[in-house]
Design brief:
The protein is mainly beta. It contains no helices and 11 strands. Strands 3, 4, 6, 7, 8 and 10 form a 6-stranded antiparallel β-sheet that branches. The chain has a 5-stranded antiparallel β-sheet with strand order 1-9-5-11-2, with no helix packed on it. A hairpin with a 2-residue loop joins β6 and β7. The N terminus is likely disordered.
Length: 119
Amino acid sequence: TLALGLFAGSALADTASTSGTTSSTISFTPGTTQRTQSDAGDDLGFTKTGGTNPAIDMRWVKCTDPSVVGTTIYNITNDGNQRLWANFVQGACFKLQYRGWVQATGTFTGVVAWNANFT
């Protein structure tokens, strides 16, 4: 897992607060918010800021084809930012999926950044 500075180099990044409730350590819960990558080659990142679940796993899923998913990033805690994916294609539409890492149930809050360039 790659720890990043606070969205370093992402002055033009789109960011949004996000939250969710985990219910499994095996099955992913799909997020409901769709986001679209505006620029080719930009990255997607997430910072966990709180919640009752101490650690979560997260990945992205393609809006139009839920069989297309990104690599799972494991054990995301409040320890810093995580790059979820690099070099998205322009126009890519994605949602986030999440699950508990060790503890199945709980909540999380965080910030997602896309159209970003992480160093």
